Amino acid sequence: MSYGTQHADTGAPALETALRAGPFHVALRAAITARGLPLHRVQHHLTRHGVTVGVTSLSYWQQGARRPQRTESLRAVRALEEILDLPDESLIRLLAKDEEHAARQRPSTRSYRSLVEASGVLEQFLAELGSSPDGGLHTVGHHERVRIGARRELLGLDSQHIVRAHQDGVDRYVAVHHGDPGCSTDHVSVRALENCRTGRVRRHRGTGVVVAELLFDARLRAGDTFLFRYGFEDGTAGPSSEYLRGFGFAGGQYALQVRFTEGVLPVRCHRFTQHSAAAPRGGRQDLPLSASHRAVHVVEPQVRAGILGIGWDWEG
Question: Which superkingdom (predicted)?
Fold first, then answer.
């Protein structure tokens, strides 16, 4: 369905060039101009698609001041392709291309393309499982313990979660594991360790995403708290050099510990943050590695939306 106006052909050559060469913000601006739609009308059409994006965000996107990266924002980009009568995935591909270019200017990490693809898979899995982005739960505390093996691989992790329901009837949590590049999701196992049991599990080989329902034995009422523990066993990918956790919402305390196998220690470790997957890394801080316990950790008393992680460097 096209949302073009009587000025829909204006600027068509410039639009075709922008869609081929990018960058994303230039193509988006050219498409909006070609269709003759003011930003408040674009926002209105997005709302009809069930996507909420502010006019200010749209303005930032077309100026290149910000890039869409959250699940809801990527849904908006796909909706914009329909609203602006653009080829499928045309804007999404430009986003990936822009990020791959930007990635060459910053330390090696997961590519933006992989994060975009993983977010799309996660959105699909959440829809299949009938879960909202926060599942009706707010995090009070989340403690993760990551284990690195003798081949420098991500062996697995254990998570202890304390949550508070903000609506009645919540009886499950959807846990997400995003394996390192080369991860074999068919061989990743889910462990329900305390106060929960495993429900449906979804796996996506291309992105390394594994999503698992953890079922509670009772339905929580709004205001109820619940403590449970679970884990993922991996060990299927190559050497790992970081572990990160993305937060879609601000929340409670988060603690991350990475423990290394005896005799396989990195030469240095650091903490890092990112406002989004598309943003440069900041908040870098060297972290002491306990040689006797072979562990490094970081504690965030009150998490913010974005990404927090620990990275490490291997010798040789």
Answer: Bacteria
